[in-house]
Amino acid sequence: MPDTAPPTEPAATAGYQIFRTSTSPSLDETAHMEVADMTADLEAGITVALEAGFAEGNVVKTLFSQPGFSLTYAWFKSGFPLPLHTHNSDCLYYVVAGSLQLGTETLGPGDGFFLGAGKAYRYTPGPDGVEVLEFRTQENFDIKFLAKTLPAWQKISNVIADRRSAWADEQPPSSILS
User: Fold this and answer.
1) pTM
2) pLDDT tens, residue by residue, 20-65
């Protein structure tokens, strides 16, 4: 379970748990998501993307998790090149702020989408970026990148390099992280 506020006696007795975005750990810190089907080329591609500034284009936090359920917050900055991927868990996405382009659809605050386990997807954050909540039917899940070659990751890295300087000054479209 992520670092949540220590349960107080009334909360424990009442059967609820409190979490706070401000103190929630990053998804990486909780190790709830594992990269599936890692190959040498995929690892090299991810390394190239990280060196280009991949981590500067997003913030992902585990807000809550327990066996059979997890809630993740993600802020993807404007134009972040989310690679085509799948997860081994059903996921319900809710747009908190900003916008995203999913196929031909533009989704904004209050919109969302559902993806069953194993369904490939990607979306592009809008000009102000996008903040989403991700509700999953598992505490631990995988991410399987469909971009598996170094040239595919180099294209992603080129977008990252082009956007990196703009990301430095971007703020999340809502006040959740404030």
Assistant:
1) 0.88
2) 998 999 999 999 999 999 999 999 999 999 999 999 999 999 999 9
Q: What would the pLDDT profile of 118-175 be if each residue is shown by its tens digit?
A: 999 999 999 999 999 999 999 999 999 999 899 999 999 999 999 999 999 999 999 8
Delineate the domains of the chain, giving CATH numbers in brackets.
9-34+58-145 (2.60.120.10)
- For residue 171, count other CB atoms closer than 10 A to its CB: 12
- Whether the pLDDT of residue 12 is over 80: the answer is no
